[in-house]
Amino acid sequence: MARTDTPSSAPSPFRHTLRVYWEDTDAGGVVFYANYLKFFERARTEWLRALGFSQERLRTDTGVLFVVADTAVRYASPARLDDLIEVSVEPRDIGRATMSLHQQAWRTGHTEHGGPLLLAEGHIRIGCVDAGTFAPRRIPTAILQALK
């Protein structure tokens, strides 16, 4: 049965901090819109790592991969070179083979561009698949238990 909301007693969303580098910006000097998907991906990888699961170990030990099945991103404000960004990961709906996550990117810290500010937020649906065939697979029980 899928979890459809986050209980009030749920822990805070996972947070991962990164810095904007030159390579992340476009000709206008702001983070290129597609790079927020990279930032979200990095945060998801670190979230799994914090739960005790390396994506490479999942592939080699259990034969599963997580793939992005669907994304929807809303852009609120630009980030710029050298900004610190905090990216959150919050599971919303967890099924047998898919998981929907809510992610946000915030500018944090004291930069020349001001204090905390929502930059982008996304709803990402990931699927668990067989590493060899890409056929859907159940999310490993250990991960489901870690998410409870």
Task: Walk me through what this model shows.
- The chain is an alpha+beta fold and 148 residues long.
- Helices cover 21% and strands 36% of the residues.
- The protein has helices at 35-50, 55-62, 141-147; strands at 14-19, 64-75, 84-94, 98-108, 117-130.
- A five-stranded antiparallel sheet has the order 1-3-4-5-2.
Q: What's the helical proportion of residues?
A: 10-25%
* pLDDT averaged residue by residue: 89
DSSP strand tally: 5
Overall structural class, as computed from helix and strand content, comes to alpha+beta
Query: Which stretches of 5+ consecutive residues score pLDDT under 50?
Result: 1-9
Binned strand content:
35-45%
**Major sheet description:** 5 strands, antiparallel
CA gyration radius, whole angstroms: 16 Å
Instruction: Give, in order, the helices and strands.
Output: EHHEEEEH
* Amino- and carboxy-terminal Cα gap: 13 Å
Specify the number of helices.
3
Side by side, the strands of the main sheet go 1-3-4-5-2
